[in-house]
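Lab manual, section 2.4: Encoding a predicted structure.

Procedure: take the sequence of the chain (276 residues), apply the prediction step described in section 2.3, and record the output as structure tokens. A sample record is shown.
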Amino acid sequence: MARKRERALALVVAVASCAVVAVISCSTVDRVIAPPPSIPGATFVGAETCAPCHEKMVKDFKLTAHSRVTIPGEGERVEGQGCESCHGPGSIHVDKSGPDTNGGHIVNPGKNPEGCYQCHLDKQAEFNLPYHHPVREGRMSCNDCHDPHGENIKAAKGMRGRGPSIIRSVNDVCAQCHREQARPHVFEHEALREGCIVCHKVHGSINQKLLVERDNNLCLKCHAQSAPLGAGNVRQIYIGGSNHTSGSSRLSQGPCFSAGCHTGIHGSNINAHLRY
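Recorded output:
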């Protein structure tokens, strides 16, 4: 009976948490949560002013998740929406009527991630973890992996419609740089079908190679098989029909992918056990 009460309480807490998230999400409130970037001396001009020069971006933007972050109404309360919510007030940019080659009259999140961080605080925190993609160092930008104006924000620019699912598009984004890991293999690692993010954190991690787990637990989440107690009442772990705890005790030698066993962790052309 006590266990049933605990489960019921956990369910109530989970539902309440989801409700809170939905209530305070940027796309559902009627007030400004994160103010748009400021540019000294500039005023807001509205997205319709951007359209004559940036016609395709303005048109595509209406299909993206970012466009849902809008507040109905008029006046100062709703200024700085659409384009200017990320790029800042555009009056000086309009007066200059040209690209911001020297910087200063428009905010470009593609060159400076601070424009993205004002909303995506969790991603900023992840980029500060010990192992991260080099966005902080200026060798990458958020736009290398995301198209903020595109229909699928998880796909990089020019990759819209290439894959039938979000998983495919995420893998395609990673493959732009990690081609050796993403290419086809004779013996595949089926985890790649579920996406690189099954094993890797996207923005930053406390583990090397942006891994979700740093040891054998990463592999055991999918590959462990239950087995009876062995000698000394020690639970035996079987993987692929082979005992990995007795004899040489393979699991104690280190992570599966760096202990000299399954070195071709992304796939192999010569061995079904993912070895080179």
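Check your result against the sample. The two ends are 54 Å apart (CA to CA).
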